[in-house]
Structure formats: C-alpha cells, structure tokens
Fold this protein.
Amino acid sequence: MAARQRLSPEVRRRQLVEAAARLLLERGHLPLPMEALADAAGVSKGLVYGYFPSQWDLFNAVLLEELAALEADGLDQVLAEGGLAARARACVDLYLRHVAARGPLVHYILRDSFMAGHIAPDARKLQDRLLRTFGRLLRRELRLPPKEAIAVISMVVAMPEEMGRLVWQGELQLDRAREMAGRLVDSSVAALRPS
C-alpha cells in the first residue's frame, strides 16, 4: 500500500473549502454534519476542526471565496459605471452568470438562519457596500424611501439567484436566463420611476 502524501496547509485548506461547498450545494442548508464534511474531504473530523474551529468559520471561508470570485469577475467595475438601470442590469447579469457556473452558495450562506450573526466582517462589508450603492441610486433616481429601496434590492437580487440556480441545475439555458433577467430589471426600474 502506498503512503499517503502530506498536503501543504494551503492545499488542505482549499480541499476542505471545496468539499464544504460541494456538500452545501448537495444539501442546500446549514449546519451540515461534521462527519459528512470530513467524509466529503476524505479527512478526519479533528483535521477539519484543526483548520476551521466552527462551521461558521468554514462557511465564511466558502462565502469569502465566492465574493472574491465575484470581485475578480468585475463587480467593482459594474458598480461604478452608469446610472441605476445600467448598474442594476450589469450586476444582475454578473451574479446570474456566477450562480449559473458555481451554484447558489452565496444565497445558501447569507440566507441560512444558522449563519445569522456569524457572517465574516469582510463579507458583511461587501454586502453593505452593495446595499449602499444601490440604495443611494434608488433614492436619488427613483426617490424611494430607504426601507422601500432595501425591499426593491432584495426582490431584484432574487431574480438572478433563482434564474442562475435553474441554469446551474440544467433547467434553463443561460442565454434565455440572461435575457429574462435583463428584461425584468429594465421593467422593474421603469415601473418604479416617478411619473
């Protein structure tokens, strides 16, 4: 029998994060049994705890990787260019393509009550920046009060999450999802414009 190769801490950490992401996509909710996490990574529970003292730490690592991928795909650029409709359309398209390619991990982590109050500060900072950017645009261009602006943002974010999930599951074509999401954003902005 061949000896098992010892992995570097960075490689092992990556292995654990990837296994956690796969298992979360399979199950769709948190928390996950530690035995299942360890089995998915092919390691002991003790090793998982050695890298991530809690599932909150582990799933924050998954979340931060997902957010880093969104930033690498140009999130800052689409947030900075154009008016409300252009930015909303670009952000929705970016997020839809992200979910279609990688699955609804961000949604699962941010919306699960298990993670409530345990989101990493860096992740919360990005989420707050997105809310502030679109909140200001909604208040300025559509003259919406802050609470209504947040409600609109929550509803608009649900579109790319759901359409991206359908693409990821093979139930909807990406081009069709992108077209529908763009039209929904455009019609939402148009419907909310003051007359």
